[in-house]
Write a structure and sequence with these properties.
It is built from 10 helices and 11 strands. By secondary structure, the protein is an alpha/beta fold. The chain has 2 domains: 165 residues, Rossmann fold (3-Layer(aba) Sandwich), CATH 3.40.50; 75 residues, SIR2/SIRT2 'Small Domain', CATH 3.30.1600. The strands form 3 sheets. Strands 5-4-3-9-10-11 form a 6-stranded parallel sheet, sandwiched between helices. Helix 9 links the parallel strand 9 and strand 10. The radius of gyration is 20 Å and the shape is elongated. The relative contact order is 0.19. The structure holds zinc ion. The site of zinc ion has 8 residues, from loops.
Length: 266
């Protein structure tokens, strides 16, 4: 499961250490890497929130009112039937308001407080990492609990329950839409994410496959800058040869173990 015997971990431009991960418990070894890291980055996807019970919209169970959610998450769908799209997003908001952050979210927030520098780039729009106490989070695909004007782009946090339809923009009177990034739309924070990942010593890829986009290219930013890349996932994903370590299991179990092992007694 684990690639070759010798790994090189680049510590920014200051020092370089070699780690032998070929023997022993990978969680213990990774905890050792974590203890010495200056900047830790996390790249997360749906698998981070799965143990909280957040719907993934994959397969048959992913249908909403016999509709494929992928077809509702587009600007075209909003133009055609904004009320239906809002009904879908209000349903999602209600779902998320009814679940709690899981131990993986809590472990990441804990980690953020313990390392000198930290950034969490997430593809999730559920806001659960923030609710767990995380602070330096880049939400690549926006946040379910924000709204954006469909006309002028004005963004506003909206943490309450359902958003009434129609809601008009206070600035221009345009129709307000969910503050998320839809299929076919550019990702406005992508450059910020790339910049934030460049100087990380260590990257955790959590609950998203490092062989699909945009996780793959973001992981490569770290890797090519010399970071150590560890993947946490419920199941083995195809190793692209880019990862240094793969930890398979429920992330609500494996992540807390790594953080606890690294900072035991701290
Ligand atoms: Zn507006």
């Amino acid at each position: 499961m684990f690639p070759g015997p010798k790994y090189t971990l680049a510590w920014g431009n200051t020092r370089r250490q070699e780690w032998d991960l070929s023997r022993g418990d990978p969680i213990e070894k990774l905890a050792g890497v974590l203890t010495g890291a200056r900047k830790v980055a996390v790249l997360s996807g749906a698998g981070l929130s799965a143990e909280s019970g957040v719907p993934t919209f994959r397969g048959k169970e992913g249908l909403w009112k016999q509709r494929n959610p992928v077809e509702l998450a587009t600007p075209e769908a909003f133009r055609a039937d904004p009320e239906l799209v809002w009904e879908f997003y209000n349903w999602r908001r209600q779902k998320i308001l009814g679940v709690e952050p899981n131990p993986a979210h809590v472990a990441l927030a804990d980690l953020e407080r313990r390392v000198p520098a930290f950034v969490h780039v997430t593809q999730n729009i559920d806001g659960l990492a923030r609710r767990a106490g995380g602070e330096n989070i880049i939400e690549l695909h926006g946040n379910l609990f924000s709204t954006r004007c469909f006309e002028c782009g004005r963004e506003q946090p909206d943490l309450s329950g359902p958003v009434p339809f129609p809601t008009s923009c206070e600035r221009c009177g345009g129709l307000v839409r969910p503050g998320v990034v839809w299929f076919g739309e550019p990702v406005p924070l992508l450059e910020d994410a790339i910049e934030s990942l460049r100087d990380a010593d260590l990257l955790f890829v959590v609950g998203t496959s490092a062989v699909v986009q945009p996780a793959a290219s973001l992981a490569m930013v770290c890797k090519s800058a010399g970071a150590f890349v560890a993947e946490f996932n419920i199941e083995a994903t195809p190793l692209s040869g880019r990862l240094d370590l793969q930890i398979v299991g429920p992330v609500g179990t494996t992540l807390p173990r790594v953080v606890a092992r690294a900072f035991a007694g701290g």
